[in-house]
Design a protein that fits this description.
The protein is an alpha+beta fold. It has helices spanning 106-118, 123-136, 156-171, 180-189, 194-197, 211-215, 217-233, 238-249, 265-288; strands at residues 13-27, 33-41, 44-50, 63-73, 76-86, 198-200, 206-209, 294-299, 304-308.
């Protein structure tokens, strides 16, 4: 049986096709050139080293065939490549096995979001959100929600959005004073600016941040696009200001990029929905690559190590 990346163990020999998620030609302390890469399939990715002075780094998003051995370096698995080549036209490769993807089909998640918008009682919010989804176009079908952290997967932006939307719908019976249309609209629009912030291929691999992404970020880009769309649709009242505030404040505080803290209930709810889904998705990914009963490495986005409980022992 062919191994997946998540099944790699020390001393495994592997030959097969993997997707390039990161690659850079580097030089070590002794002046030797090598290629540093992260290669992966849908189960995960692994850092790889190719010690070849003449080799160039393959392009991110390309599929390569590799042969090599799994080793351990500083307590983490690493793949030492003996041979590598780009996928050729006559190679039979199931691409669905390579791309890390959302657990649900993109078209199903988008349809659920659009059905929610169609049920809005606010005509202005329905018109505005529908138009912004239309403007997002087909890129929304494959864009990830991040380059490295939560929902860094094909269709990850939709995955993050639909998870938050379902959380919001579960929240409303507990907090019925919240305005459902406004909260749902904030959820759907809060990260659409990431389409302008990152450069992603159709596999959901982010190669870099755009100029606008680096200079402005998705909060500012999202607000700017919202304002332009609202102006074009002739919507110019508190509806727009409330949504703009929700987009600007959804990171919660200035240390995380929000120039304003959430200042009304739906904005506060949006912030915690975003935080909850992002952190739980990150922890889920960490658990999947950490043995039960052990701690992960320090996770940058969480600023802590994550423990994977041995859940089987709870039932023994």
């Amino acid at each position: 049986m062919d191994l997946t990346v998540s099944q790699f163990e020390k001393d495994n020999n592997y030959e097969g096709f993997l997707l390039v998620r990161y690659a850079e030609r580097k030089i070590d302390s002794k002046g030797r050139y090598y290629v540093d890469m992260n290669l992966g399939d849908k189960s995960g990715e692994i850092n790889c080293k190719y010690w070849n002075s003449s080799a160039e780094a393959p392009e991110v998003g390309k599929v390569v065939k590799v042969r090599g051995t799994v080793q351990e370096f500083n307590g983490r698995l690493q793949f030492r490549i003996a041979e590598i080549r780009l996928k050729e036209e006559d190679d039979e490769v199931d691409m669905r096995l390579l791309a890390v993807s959302a657990p649900e089909p993109a078209e199903d998640m988008r349809a659920e979001i659009e059905e929610t918008v169609d049920a809005f009682t606010s005509a202005k919010l329905k018109k505005l959100v529908s138009e912004m989804l239309k403007e997002a176009g087909p890129m929304l079908e494959y864009y990830p929600a991040a380059q490295r952290m939560h929902h860094a997967e094909r269709s990850g932006l939709l995955h993050h959005t639909i998870s938050m939307l379902r959380l919001a719908k579960a929240m409303l019976p507990v907090y019925p004073f919240l305005n459902a249309d406004l909260l749902y609209a904030g959820v759907i629009l809060h990260d659409l600016g990431k389409i302008d912030e990152m450069k992603s291929d159709e596999f959901g691999n982010v190669t870099d941040y755009t100029r606008d992404g680096q200079l402005l970020g998705h909060l500012v880009k999202g607000v700017a696009k919202l304002e332009k769309t609202a102006e074009r649709l002739g919507i110019d009242d508190e509806t727009v200001i409330l949504l703009e505030h929700m987009l600007l404040s959804h990171h919660g505080e200035s240390d995380y990029g929000s120039p304003k803290p959430p200042m009304f209930p739906e904005a506060e709810a949006l912030h915690w929905l975003d935080m909850t889904d992002a952190r739980l998705n990150t922890m889920q990914g960490v658990e999947e690559r950490t043995q039960p009963g052990t701690f992960s490495e320090k996770i940058t986005g969480l600023d802590r190590r994550v423990y994977h409980p041995d859940y089987d022992k709870l039932n023994s």
